[in-house]
Specification:
The chain is an alpha/beta fold. Helix content is 44%, strand content 19%. It contains 13 helices and twelve strands. The strands form three sheets. It has a five-stranded mixed sheet, sandwiched between helices. Strands 9-8-10-7-11 form a five-stranded mixed sheet, sandwiched between helices. Strands 1-2 form a two-stranded antiparallel sheet. Helix 6 packs across helix 12. The longest helix is centred in the first third of the chain and has 24 residues.
C-alpha cells in the first residue's frame, strides 16, 4: 500500500468513477485501475463493483476511502508543518475570472514559481458559476471569482474589491445628468451570460431601480462587451480602471448613475478538506499579488 494508491481510491470515491479520478490525477485509466486492483489484492476485498457497465464503489470501498482520507490529511499536515516551503509539491488546478487574468495573474505565477518551484499549475478561465461547479466537482482545487461561493465546506479569502462602471459609446444619446435604471432600460444591455456574477449584478441593479432588464446582448468576455459597446450597440458594465484603452481612445465614456454600482468583492475559494496544503499557501500568495482595492473601514460602514 502506498500514497498513490490511497490518493487514487480517495478521488475515485469522491468523484464517483475511475474515469473522473484518472482525469483529476492526470493518469491513464489503466494506471488508475491497476492501483485500485493492487489495493484489492493486498486487502482481499472488492473496492469497486465491476459487474455493471460503470464500476461503482462498494461499501468496503467507501469505508477504506475514509481511512485513506485520514492518512492523506495527516501526510499533508506533516508536509505543511515540517517540510521546507520550497519542497511543497503537487499539481494545482486553479479557475480564474477574466478580470484576474487581465490584471495580477502573471505576478501571482511569478511569486509561485519563486517560492514553490515544485508546484505545477493548470489554469481555467471561466464564468463564476462554471468555476464554482468545477470546484464542487473536484475538477478545480482553487477558484478566484467575483462574489462568494455558497457551501459549508469551503474556505473563502478576500482578494479585494473592484469598482464597476456603466459605460457607453458617445454615439448613444443619453440625458446629461446622473442616470437612473429607467434611463438605461431604453437601451440594449451588453452583459456576460447568466452563469456570471456580472449578469446577476446588472439584473439586481435594474430591479432595485424599478426598471426592466431587457434586450440583453450576452457573451462570455468583458473584452467582447467593450467591443460591442464601443460600436454603439448598447450600454455595458466594466471595471474601467483595468480596461482603460477604450476610454483613452474615447470609444467609451463612463456614465454617472444613481445609485452607483457597488464595488464587487473578489475571493479565493478552496475546499476545506485538509488534503492539499498547497491550496492555503497559494491563496495567501494570491492575496499578496492582487492589485484589487482593499476597502477602508469607512468604505465598509
Amino acid at each position: 500500500m502506498n500514497f498513490r494508491q490511497l490518493e487514487t481510491l480517495y478521488w475515485a470515491t469522491r468523484l464517483g468513477s475511475l474515469i473522473a479520478a484518472s482525469e483529476r490525477l492526470n493518469a491513464t485509466q489503466s494506471t488508475v485501475s491497476m492501483r485500485i486492483q493492487e489495493l484489492e489484492n493486498e486487502f482481499g476485498i472488492e473496492l469497486f463493483d465491476r459487474s455493471q457497465r460503470t464500476a461503482r464503489v462498494t461499501p468496503k470501498g467507501r469505508e477504506m476511502a475514509r481511512y485513506a482520507e485520514e492518512i492523506l490529511a495527516l501526510a499533508s499536515s506533516m508536509r505543511e508543518n515540517l517540510a521546507a516551503p520550497s519542497s511543497l509539491p503537487g499539481l494545482m488546478r486553479i479557475g480564474v475570472a477574466e478580470v484576474v487574468s487581465a490584471t495580477w495573474l502573471p505576478n501571482f505565477v511569478t511569486n509561485v514559481r519563486r517560492q514553490y518551484p515544485k508546484i505545477s499549475i493548470e489554469f481555467d478561465e471561466a464564468l463564476t458559476q462554471n468555476l464554482i461547479d468545477g470546484l464542487e466537482s473536484g475538477d478545480l482545487d482553487i477558484i478566484f471569482i467575483a462574489g462568494r461561493a455558497p457551501g459549508r465546506e469551503l474556505t473563502t479569502m478576500s482578494l479585494g474589491f473592484v469598482d464597476m462602471n456603466w459605460a457607453a459609446s458617445p454615439e448613444i444619446s443619453l440625458p446629461n445628468r446622473r442616470l437612473k435604471a429607467r434611463d438605461l432600460e431604453k437601451h440594449p444591455t451588453i452583459t456576460l451570460t447568466r452563469e456570471s456574477h456580472h449578469y446577476e449584478q446588472i439584473e439586481k441593479w435594474f430591479v432595485t431601480g424599478g426598471a426592466r432588464f431587457r434586450r440583453p446582448f450576452t457573451c462570455k468576455s468583458l473584452n467582447v462587451c467593450i467591443q460591442l459597446a464601443s460600436a454603439g450597440l448598447g450600454v455595458t458594465l466594466v471595471p474601467a480602471e483595468f480596461y482603460p484603452q477604450a476610454f483613452v481612445e474615447k470609444r467609451l465614456h463612463i456614465l454617472e448613475t444613481s445609485p452607483e454600482m457597488p464595488p464587487v468583492e473578489f475571493n479565493a475559494v478552496y475546499r476545506d478538506n485538509h488534503l492539499q496544503s498547497a491550496a492555503v499557501v497559494l491563496c495567501q500568495l494570491a492575496q499578496k499579488a492582487s492589485s484589487f482595492r482593499q476597502l477602508a473601514l469607512r468604505d465598509k460602514a
